[in-house]
Amino acid sequence: MKIRLDRTICDGFGVCAKHAPGYFSLDDWGYAALIGDGTVAEGDHDAVMRALLDCPVHAITEIGERRFRAPEPPLTDADDPAEHLKTEENEAEWGFTR
C-alpha cells in the first residue's frame, strides 16, 4: 500500500497523526506532513487506513493498485442456508403447531 498527502487540502485537524504517528507529523500550526515516501508496511495498514478514512477533508489518498481478495466459491447444496429454512411445507419437521 502506498499513500499520498495533499497538504493544500489539509485543514490541520491532526486525526492522521493521532492514528498513524509513524507516517504523519504535524507542523507548528497543526498541518500534516507525510513521513517517508508514503509506502506503508503491512503491519501498519489498519492504522493508516483509519487515518485515511477519518480525515475530515480527504487529504490522504491511497495510490497504486488495490489488492482484492479472491471471491469465495459459491455455496453447495450442503452449505446452503435456505435448506434449513422453516416453511409451511416442512413445519412438521421443526415442530410448528397452529
Overview of this protein structure:
- The chain is of the alpha+beta class.
- It has a domain at 2-63: Alpha-Beta Plaits, CATH 3.30.70.
- 19% of the residues lie in helices and 14% in strands.
- A two-stranded antiparallel ribbon has the order 1-4. It has a two-stranded antiparallel sheet with strand order 2-3.
- A hairpin with a 5-residue loop joins β2 and β3.
- It is elongated, with a radius of gyration of 24 Å.
Please describe the structure with a list of short key phrases separated by commas or semicolons.
98 residues; alpha+beta; Alpha-Beta Plaits; two-stranded antiparallel ribbon; 19% helix; transport; 3 iron, 4 sulfur cluster binding; electron transport; Fe-S_cluster_ET; iron-sulfur
State the low-pLDDT regions, or none. none
Discrete helix count:
3
Largest sheet: 2 strands, antiparallel
Tell me, briefly, the overall form: elongated
User: How do the helices and strands follow one another from N- to C-terminus?
Assistant: EHEEHEH
What is the CA-atom radius of gyration, in angstroms?
24 Å
Strand order of the largest sheet: 1-4
- If you average the pLDDT, what whole number results? 84
* Helical content band: 10-25%
Pfam families: Fer4_15
Cofactor: [3Fe-4S] cluster
Protein name: Ferredoxin
GO molecular function: 3 iron, 4 sulfur cluster binding; metal ion binding
Short structural description:
With 98 residues, the chain is an alpha+beta fold. The protein contains three helices and four strands.
